[in-house]
Structures are given as C-alpha cells and as structure tokens.
Amino acid sequence: MTAYLITGVSVVGGEPTDLLIRDGVVAAVCDGLAADDATVVDATGLVALPGLVDLHTHLREPGREDAETVESGSRAAALGGYTAVCAMANTSPVADTAGVVEQVWRLGREAGLVDVQPIGAVTVGLAGERLAELGAMADSAAGVRIFSDDGHCVADPRLMRRALEYVKAFDGVIAQHAEEPRLTEGAQMHEGEVSTRLGLTGWPAVAEEAIIARDVLLAEHVGSRLHVCHVSTAGSVEVLRQAKARGVRVTAEVTPHHLLLTDAKAESYDPVFKVNPPLRTAADIAALREALAEGVIDIIATDHAPHAVEDKECEWAYARPGMLGLETALSIALDVFGPRWDLIAERMSRTPARIAGLTGHGVDPAPGVPATLTLDDPAARRVIEPAELASRSRNTPYARMTLPGRIVATFLRGEPTVLDGKAVK
After folding, report:
1. Distance separating alpha carbons of residues 152 and 221, to the nearest angstrom
2. Distance between CA atoms of residues 153 and 160, nearest Å
3. DSSP helix/strand/coil, 397
4. 52-356 shares the fold of 3-48+367-423
5. 28 near 367, Cβ under 8 Å?
6. CA 395 to chain CA centroid, nearest Å
7. Would the pLDDT of 217 be above 90?
8. Fold adopted by 52-356
C-alpha cells in the first residue's frame, strides 16, 4: 500500500498542516512531516474533510443499467468527495430480499470506489401491502440497517407501525418517503402561485407534512428510529422541531436542490426540474436552510436520481422525476453556506455515517483513524457541463451553472479513488 504525504492542507478549516497516510490510516498530522517513501500531494489551499457519506442514492442496478450502474454511480460519488453511499431499493428486481441486497453490496465491493451500503425495501415490491424480509436483509452479508420504499410512501399506518416495531429489535431505521398519495394524485409540481399560473396540478405541502406528523407519533409510540427523506417544506420543519423537542428518535435530510432551486424553475417546462418532492418556494428554502444550520434537519442527502434520455427529455407530464446530485452536492453546500467547514463535515459526513452505522466513515482526519477523506479546493470555480459528468445520465439541474469548489482527491482507507480531480479507476 502506497504512503501519501499531504502537505499544507487545512483539516476541516483549521490552520495549514501536513498529513501522512500509511497502511490505510492517518499516521500523523503536524507541521514539517517528511517521508521518503511517500507520494507527495501538494494540498496548499485545500481543505481536508472526512469522506462524504450519502444516505440517499439511486444506483439503478439491477434493472436500469442504461441510466446508471453501481460502478458508474460509485465513480460519480468518488468524484463528488464521497466515500460511502446508501443505495435505495427501487431497483428491478426490488431490493426486498437478502439475495438482491447482497448483489448490490458485492457490486459495490467489486467497483472499489466507495463503500456501497444497500437500503432494503420496507414492503414487498414497494407495493405497501406486506413487509419485506427485513430480518433476512439485516442478517445478510450486506448487513442492512436502513429500510425505505423511497419513491413510494408507506401509507398504511398499521404497516408503518409494524415496520418500526420490527427494526427496533436490531436498532434499524425506517426511512420514509413522506407523501400522502391521496393528496398528490396527478400532481406535476408544487401547489401554489406558479402551478396555478401554469395550469399544472399541484403537490400540496400538507401531503408531506401530514405523513411526517403521523410517523413521528408512531415512532414516539414504538420508541423506534425514523428517518425522513428529502424534507421540502417549512411546515415539515416545524413538525420535526416539535418532535425533536419531545425526544422522538427522528432524523431528517434535505437535498441540495431543495436548498437552492424554487418552483419558478417549472416555468421553463424543462423536465430536468421535475422532482419528487417538487421544488418549493423561496420561503421553504429559507426555512430548510435555517433548520439545517441549527440541526433540526440533520443531514444533506443527494437523492441522486439518474434517468435515461428517453425518460427525461420528453414532455413535462411524462418525464420521470429526479435529478443528479453526487458530483455537485458539496459545491451546492458551499454555495449556500460558504466555507462553514465544520457544519459541512457534520451534515455531509459525521451525522449520516452515524445514522447509517458506517464504522470508519464520518471521522475527521486524525492520527490512528482510517484515511477515508476528501480534499476540496474552495477557491476553484467550475462550470457544470453534463457531458463531463461520470454518471451515465445527464439530468443535472445545474447545467452550465458556475459553482464553487472542486474535489481534488478522495481516499478510501488510504487508497486514492480520485487524484488531481480524476477518478483513479
């Protein structure tokens, strides 16, 4: 295993120092380090963060390898500074058995670019009718601890209660896609002034808020762990704030696009801006940013959702919802919050690793810890060109936008997956 000497780096925004990686761990962090056998990485002006962890990634394999594969998604993740991603269950076949989650887990190990941790489905086939093999997936080689029907809400309250009770036995997590389906039938975008003007059926905020309110009560009653996916409204923030004040075991995520883009983007009728939950209002964005900063919302998760050309470049009504996110998430965080490095490390690495139980991830670079980290150049500015992205898909909402920051290097347990801004494999 090659040793690396990273010189002049700022660890989570601290003063410049040197960092030595040897045998997969951080061997030393101090000024004036020297190692004749080490490859030197000049990190002057760069910031070292613990490797980013994404709790919400769609890798599409098995079933839709035309849109993404575990390997291509892993490469996109590494280039975005990620060292671990949690792969959602809405594949084909659905990841609702031990066999399928183990397949995804092994494909991630073979790619070797990030740790791919499968998320198991809550219900068989995502149909919302009966529980999937939660225990078998938890006991599998993949060691599943998070379960979600993302893309579908577990709408039946009795089934949701049973799921929360089941995973409590092994301290698992139910991650809910909060959407009351009877309130969003035929919805095309956020319900509000813009949808009225455009004549598009609206997706009301209360459809999200009602499910979150119900589920935090269920989680409180059961004493189990609930995670709320892609929170998008100011009302949801208030429900979460009250639940946390009562000590409910609930965590929540927000996506980069819900921190930056408003429903006004729908005025272009460009399907790249169609997403579920939909882009909301400026007031919602302000509430989400405040909640993330104070910890009411725990993490940033990408909801990286690649789609093949025919599923996205079509009429708005027929387009599949979803956006790419892995290669741009850190830049969006920098654009929104500036160089608040400790906040970014907490929301994009430490806390998501803790929620997912990913040992060895989410740990700041320090002597003796796994050398799982990323180096970002905060002074860089880059224009997002869809054709240059590593994902097999091109549905980025940030096309031709200029964003801050650039990932220069990513290390997974001492092995570089990205060097000089390029994937090693």
Report:
1. 23
2. 10
3. coil
4. no
5. yes
6. 16
7. yes
8. TIM Barrel (3.20.20)
3-state secondary structure of 356: helix
Peptide bond into 62 cis (omega under 30): yes
Q: Verify whether residue 303 is a known catalytic residue.
A: yes
pLDDT for 353: 98
Query: So what's the pLDDT on residue 1?
Result: 79
Distance, in Å, from the CA atom of 350 to the CA atom of 294, rounded to the nearest integer, reads: 15
- Tokens in use for 76? 């996109």
- Name the residue ranges covered by the structural domains of the chain: 3-48+367-423, 52-356
CA torsion, ordered 182, 185, 187, 193, to nearest 10 deg = -50
CB atoms within 10 A of CB 39: 13
What b/e readout covers 357-392, taking b as 16+ CB neighbours within 10 angstroms? ebebbbbbbeeeebbbbbbbbbebebebeeeebbbb
Query: E strands within 12-92?
Result: 16-22, 25-30, 38-42, 47-50, 52-57, 82-87
Strand segments (E) across 267-337: 299-300
Give the ranges where 91-247 is alpha helix by DSSP (H): 98-111, 134-139, 157-168, 193-198, 205-222, 234-245
Identify the DSSP state of 114: S
The pLDDT assigned to 277 comes to 98
At 339-380, the pLDDT tens digits run 999 999 999 999 999 999 999 999 999 999 999 999 999 999
The answer to whether 331 and 344 are in contact (CB under 8 A) is: no
Q: Which helix (DSSP H) or strand (DSSP E) does residue 7 occupy?
A: strand 3-11
End-to-end, the C-alpha distance of the chain in Å comes to 16
Tell which residue, 4, 75, 56, has the closest CA to residue 390.
75
Residue 419 φ then ψ, to 5°: -140, 140
Catalytic residue among 18, 215, 298, 303: 303
Report the C-alpha gap between 119 and 136 in whole angstroms. 13
Helix or strand or coil: residue 27?
strand
At 280-334, the pLDDT tens digits run 999 999 999 999 999 999 999 999 999 999 999 999 999 999 999 999 999 999 9
Q: Coil, helix or strand for 354? A: helix
Report pLDDT digits (tens) over 30-87: 999 999 999 999 999 999 999 999 999 999 999 999 999 999 999 999 999 999 999 9
CA pair distance 384, 396, nearest whole angstrom: 9
Instruction: Tell me whether strands 115-118 and 82-87 are parallel, antiparallel or unpaired.
Output: parallel
- Which distant-in-sequence residues (6+ apart) come within 8 Å of 339 by Cβ? 13, 47, 378
State which fold the 3-48+367-423 domain adopts. Urease, subunit C; domain 1 (2.30.40)
